[in-house]
């Protein structure tokens, strides 16, 4: 494993992070989830990303139990707040009430007295940004989080949040967007703004929810038990990557991966990590061997010729419209 600074902050994280969205507490049983966490630790992964909403709060609880007994100072635990976790009208969004209550609930589930990074899971158009940032600042000052970050905010939202964070003297150090060979919407606006501000990207779905593994073939039904057959949310997320025109181009990457001595998934993760603005790529898994294999992308350097050949194949089907990031902001509280 190799390690990187999170943006220009002093925090160092593993360049491959383990995330438990769509797995812990839903797709896989707790014994398998724990085995995946152990495999991540064995691979040198120290950064673990979750959110209160994952699996209706169960993912945080599973992760907390899986990490119990580990030296807390040797881990970076990341979680998020925004989406509803209970039916109450205040159990959502980025109001002061919801943030202050949610951090305590997350810490209880994670069995820790602090998280290393507390992230706004989306931008809340229903709450003044000043209120949100002041609440996050109080979370940091109370010692319940060391740093703060955002997820799927636009470049303008990030600039506004960062300016307030500086006024409040709290470290807003990260952005967590979707990013992969097939989904590049952050390249034109979000990455340049974050590099200017010293904010690092912790990207999710570097393998495009599995579309870049090569397991999905054009003209064929998805393999039984794969994410594309999961009716708990996985199928909805991966569906738009499974068009034949996309899968045909993914298949053309296999000889390139073979030349580099990598699996397709490892090639996809290494491609994301070649971006200077990326501090870490989040990988998920339903089996420990998936974690072990994906972690081998750490430290891989892809040469310029290989990157150019990848781009020639994939660029025609990649999603690049920066307005896709704007669409991630809910028009109202969920």
From TrEMBL:
Keywords: NADP, Oxidoreductase. Transmembrane segments: none annotated. CDD domains: Aldo_ket_red_shaker-like. Residues 15-314 form the NADP-dependent oxidoreductase domain. InterPro entries: K_chnl_volt-dep_bsu_KCNAB-rel (IPR005399), NAD(P)_OxRdtase_dom_sf (IPR036812), NADP_OxRdtase_dom (IPR023210). The keyword Oxidoreductase applies. The keyword Thylakoid does not apply. Belongs to the shaker potassium channel beta subunit family. This is Aldo/keto reductase family protein.
